[in-house]
Amino acid sequence: MTQTTSRLLATALSSAMLMGAFTAAHAGQASFVIDAQSGQVLEASNQDELNYPASLTKMMTLYLAFEALHEGRLTWDQKLTMSENAESKEPFKLAIGAGRQVTLREAVESIVVLSANDSAVAIAEQLGGSEQAFATVMTGKARQLGMTNTVFKNPSGLPDPEQVTSARDMATLGVSLMRDFPEEFKLFSMRGFQFRGMKLRGHNNLMYRYDGVDGIKTGYTDASGYNVVTSALKDGRRVVGVVMGEKTASLRDDKMAGLLDSALPSSSTATASTTPGKQPGATMTDMQPRK
């Protein structure tokens, strides 16, 4: 076990006593917008209430993957084996079959674009040995970053009643990814990617409809409602916004667009006729359910 992993485990274990104090989370509506450069809070509503993160969880999985890359514990071309456990994670996955391999780059891109659960588990098992051990490291890193209300129990965001977070904590994680891994953060602007001959399109429709949005992650489960963390840049101002607990993807996206209108007064939404295929880097195959 590396010194880094040992330190994170110690941090997480020291915070484990907090878990018992948490009340049950729920799909409550919450929002938070922060200026990523100054730290100024621009909007906040129920920002510290506990909610379920759903696939926003994968932001931390990717944070730890990027950290491992910088520390030399992973390489972009490294092969990850899909275990039977990873292969079992429905519904969003690469579905290549247990025992087969993907590169770390393929795993990361599939998480960014498709929110692939099997790829998240493959990264977790490579770095932590198991989902449970990796989740402990995730919680430890959350504490280091100042995410005081967050507990992770798995790397994918699949339902677990003890996996909780808040809108403020998710904004903290978004800003941390941007600050600590600026080059890797650019991957969150991917609107699609090609995987072994297939063109795959992502879930984040705000990148098509709102000028200045360049990521980062959507999420949904029945328990969480529709969540999103969004990064946007306009006229030199960078903001990170969070919306949690909305009833539909459209309501979530509309709520975020309204928040961005307030935070970035000079921005404007794209027209409804915008064609995804004419956006830089977009791919056109859209066989994924809206998330």
UniProtKB/TrEMBL annotation:
It comes from Rhizobium chutanense. The active site is at residues 55, 58, 115. SUPFAM superfamilies: beta-lactamase/transpeptidase-like. Residues 1-27 form the signal peptide. Residues 260-291 are annotated as: Disordered. Keywords: Carboxypeptidase, Cell shape, Cell wall biogenesis/degradation, Hydrolase, Peptidoglycan synthesis, Protease, Signal. Residues 266-275 have a biased composition (Low complexity). Substrate binds at residue 217. This is D-alanyl-D-alanine carboxypeptidase. It comes from the Bacteria. Residues 25-248 form the Peptidase S11 D-alanyl-D-alanine carboxypeptidase A N-terminal domain. InterPro entries: Beta-lactam/transpept-like, Peptidase_S11, Peptidase_S11_N. GO terms for molecular function: serine-type D-Ala-D-Ala carboxypeptidase activity. GO terms for biological process: cell wall organization; peptidoglycan biosynthetic process; proteolysis; regulation of cell shape. Belongs to the peptidase S11 family.
